[in-house]
Amino acid sequence: MSIGVILDFDGTIIDSETNLYNAINRNLADRGHKPLEIERYKESIGSESDELDAYILERVGEEGVRAIAEEHLRTCLELECYPHILKLMDYCRDNGIPVAVATSSRRSDITPMLEHFGILDAFVSVRGKEDVEHVKPDPALYRLAGKDLGLAPADIYAIEDTVNGSLAAVRAGMNAIVLTNEMTGDMDFDTVDYFAKDITYEEIIEILEGKPAVKE
Predict the structure, then answer these.
(1) What biological process terms from GO does the record include (predicted)?
(2) Helix (H) or strand (E) holding 85
(3) How many CB atoms lie within 10 A of CB 55?
């Protein structure tokens, strides 16, 4: 049986979620505003951020919004990809498993980062905000990426770190493997019918090799 893997980007390939939060607060502080509450920020992770965008725009103006975006994109290039994700990508390459990216961020922002990290060519496709009317938790991004892989949804494993992203994968009929990080570890995933959560690289490989996994 052929299988495929779809990776989220922010918080899954690199720790860009923490990076953006820090960039927002540095720019708020520079303009005399109090820090953004972490819980308010978390509500937007992996999905639309219209409310948060309006909140920030009101305080820092268009110039400040541009400064945040520029700082975020620049400093993301100083980050490193999560080692377990790089190992997973190597495994997929060596075993002929196609991999794609599905991100609620703009593809035009993410693609240069993937190229910078030297992994862009590893992906069949990169699907982002420009490709759909609604981002996660809507399943549209995952459905597009799944079509790019040419596989049935049930044969695809989606690696996600957020509730919004995991819901999108499940709603697309895929198997969501949730790997949380420092920013998303305390999110409530009770509403998500995920396949597995916070497992090791070795356990992910066992799943891809068809061995049974226990849902935590």
Answers:
(1) DNA repair
(2) helix 83-94
(3) 16
Q: Say if CB 113 and CB 106 are below 8 A apart.
A: no
What's the rounded Cα separation, in Å, for the pair 131 and 189? 27
106, 130 Cβ separation under 8 angstroms: yes
Cα(123)–Cα(89) distance, integer angstroms: 9
**Chain mean position to CA 55:** 23
Return the structure tokens found at 140: 């549209």
Cβ–Cβ under 8 Å, residues 209 and 186: no
Give the integer Cα–Cα distance in Å for 126 and 6: 9
pLDDT digits (tens, 9 = 90+) for 14-53: 999 999 999 999 999 999 999 999 988 988 887 777 889 8
Closest alpha carbon to 49 in 135, 160, 131:
135
CA distance linking residue 188 with residue 52, whole number of Å = 20
What is the three-class DSSP state of 2?
A: coil
pLDDT digit string (tens) for 71-126? 999 999 999 999 999 999 999 999 999 999 999 999 999 999 999 999 999 999 99
How many angstroms separate the CA atoms of 215 and 59, rounded?
43
CATH code: domain 4-15+80-208 is: 3.40.50.1000
* Other Cβ atoms within 10 Å of 59 Cβ, number: 17
How many angstroms separate the CA atoms of 38 and 45, rounded? 11
